[in-house]
């Protein structure tokens, strides 16, 4: 399988994936002072089932984590489902309580 390349295009408020030099998909968002709201993810039908959506979600979540400035609000059904399968990112989701020392609340 050809490698999936993902980039952040902040001017267009989206993450873009390509493979084999062809546009393969994108994830759009809205940015506020406190949040990145993922609103829509789309994968070209020619590339469905090849991990493009997962590559977009992972890259975007890692990018948001590295920035450290905002929480994530996944309105996009794909992002919601992806986060449900990748629980390590759930603490980044808006409204999820922060873990406490010792695991007690």
TrEMBL record:
UniProt-listed PROSITE patterns:
GNAT, GNAT_YJDJ
The record ties this protein, via Pfam families, to: Acetyltransf_CG
Q: Give every N-acetyltransferase domain span.
A: 1-105, 7-94
User: PANTHER family this protein is in?
Assistant: BSR4717 PROTEIN, PROTEIN NATD1
Provide the protein name.
N-acetyltransferase
Q: What is the species listed in this Swiss-Prot or TrEMBL entry?
A: Aeromicrobium senzhongii
């Amino acid at each position: 399988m050809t490698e999936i390349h993902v980039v952040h295009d902040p001017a267009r408020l989206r993450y873009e994936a390509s493979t084999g030099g062809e546009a393969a998909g994108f994830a759009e968002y809205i940015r506020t002072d406190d949040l990145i709201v993922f609103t829509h993810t789309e994968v070209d039908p020619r590339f469905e089932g090849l991990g493009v959506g997962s590559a977009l979600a992972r890259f975007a979540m890692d990018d948001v984590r590295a920035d450290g400035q905002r929480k994530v609000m996944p309105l996009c059904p794909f992002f919601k489902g992806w986060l449900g399968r990748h629980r390590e990112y759930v603490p980044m989701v808006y409204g999820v309580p922060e873990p406490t020392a010792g695991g007690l609340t």
